[in-house]
Design the sequence.
């Protein structure tokens, strides 16, 4: 009922949106004499504000066209390398670049926003890595015939993607996927899988939310499983491809974290209105870019959302050694060939200090040479994976760690490689898998340092 009411409201205000859009376009026509007057600019600003407040924001684009490698420009071709019902593995292929470089799988959070929230993260790795990212599909666009999507399915997807990419792949999990990334790595280690990641980088992940719990952690743990199941899960109505799917709606997520900082959002829109009147195009465009990303939300599969609440925030199954996959108890202590790096922000109020570092205690089978913990001073949650400090300080640390452990996986015999008969064949396939092709002079990711604490909240839940 709630989803249907929201959908009906969205359709009802579309005429207002279209009217405001037409009004703004008329006011900005070159031959309109009001265009250069204070009155005209005020009317144009009001029209755009109404247009934006009544819009339905769709999935943004990554927008990469080129990148620069050693002073040379290479075109970026965004391709679906491997497609599954709830996620596409995107490859940012650099056309014409033939130098083999480390493969990086960036695991974007399935937490309300699209993978484009990590645009800045992807951009930093394009010049010197073969970059792939998990592009999660809006659950309302997945037909019911494809079934549901649970925590176990999430882990299965990561394992399938790692098999698709082959050996010597480095996995970077940003926030929420840190837990399933550890589970996937543990499953592959237990099976002696040669495609297990060479290194695992966890950024601001809620590994053990009992450590320095934040307001977000308290909210998630302050209610029981039944409350979430009975109050925030909806059924996608007719009119969508995924009609009948059980989901945690994006509009509930959006309204929740906007209400946490409503005063800030209101003041930003007043400032935007003033910038339009003054003709401050740079600030106005920064506002548009940020809110185009911030207001574009996706529905989450109900099973996955509820599993995450239960396993991560209510029962703390991973740090307690109780987490399972497909009914089998997970053994993180068996991980011995995957190097581990954890990253935390000094001022992170979404994932508290120590929550990500807890992974080192859980992955107890690694040597000291295979471990690294890095704390970035002066940044919050968002600054761990985006913005100036990420570009200048965090990203170089990650790249150095990847380079150090690029071939750190201990060689294993052909008989230990599932489904393989020749070690020579494996080596050839691994080399061929490194598709040398490209790079981008990418569009600068939205750097709203004022990135409303609420944006980060979505990464945690």
Sequence:
């Amino acid at each position: 009922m709630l989803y249907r009411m929201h959908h009906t409201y969205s359709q009802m205000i579309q005429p207002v949106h279209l009217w405001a859009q037409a009004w703004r376009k008329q006011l900005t026509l070159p031959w309109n004499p009001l265009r250069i007057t204070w009155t005209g600019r005020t009317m144009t600003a009001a029209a755009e504000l109404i247009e934006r407040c009544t819009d339905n924001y769709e999935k943004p684009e990554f927008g990469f066209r080129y990148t620069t490698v050693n002073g040379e420009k290479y075109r970026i071709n965004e391709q679906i390398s491997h497609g599954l019902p709830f996620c596409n593995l995107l490859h940012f292929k650099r056309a014409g670049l033939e130098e083999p470089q480390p493969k990086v799988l960036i695991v974007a959070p399935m937490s309300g926003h699209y993978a484009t929230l990590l645009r800045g993260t992807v951009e930093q790795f394009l010049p010197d890595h073969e970059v792939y990212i998990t592009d999660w599909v809006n659950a309302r666009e997945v037909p019911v015939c494809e079934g549901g999507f649970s925590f176990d399915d999430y882990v299965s997807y990561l394992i399938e993607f790692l098999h698709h990419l082959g050996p010597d792949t480095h996995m970077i999990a940003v926030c929420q996927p840190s837990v399933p990334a550890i589970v996937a790595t543990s499953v592959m280690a237990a099976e002696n899988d040669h495609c297990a990641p060479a290194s695992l980088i966890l950024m601001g992940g809620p590994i053990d939310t009992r450590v320095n719990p934040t307001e977000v952690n308290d909210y998630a743990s302050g209610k029981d499983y039944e409350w979430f199941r009975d109050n925030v899960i909806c059924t996608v109505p007719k009119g969508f491809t995924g009609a009948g799917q059980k989901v945690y709606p994006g509009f509930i997520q959006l309204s929740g974290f906007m209400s946490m900082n409503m005063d800030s959002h209101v003041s930003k829109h007043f400032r935007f209105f003033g910038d339009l009147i003054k003709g401050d195009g740079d600030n106005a465009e920064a506002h548009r870019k940020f809110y185009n990303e911030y207001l574009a939300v996706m529905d989450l599969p109900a099973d996955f959302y509820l599993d995450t609440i239960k396993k991560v925030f209510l029962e703390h199954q991973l740090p307690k050694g109780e987490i399972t996959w497909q009914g089998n108890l997970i053994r993180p202590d068996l991980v011995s060939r995957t190097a581990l790096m954890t990253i935390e922000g000094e001022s992170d109020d979404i994932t508290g200090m120590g929550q990500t570092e807890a992974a080192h205690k859980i992955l107890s089978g690694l040597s000291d040479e295979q471990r690294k913990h890095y704390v970035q001073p002066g940044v919050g949650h968002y600054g761990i994976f985006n913005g100036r400090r990420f570009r200048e300080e965090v990203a170089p640390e990650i790249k150095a760690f990847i380079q150090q452990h690029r071939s750190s996986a201990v060689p294993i015999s052909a008989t230990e490689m599932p489904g393989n008969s020749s070690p020579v064949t494996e080596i050839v396939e691994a080399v061929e898998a490194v598709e040398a092709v490209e790079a981008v002079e990418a569009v600068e990711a939205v750097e709203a340092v004022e990135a409303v604490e609420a944006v980060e909240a979505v990464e945690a839940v």
Q: What stands out?
A: The chain is about 40% helix and 15% strand. The CA atoms of residues 208 and 358 lie 6 Å apart. The chain has two domains: 1-56, 68-228+299-410+424-460.
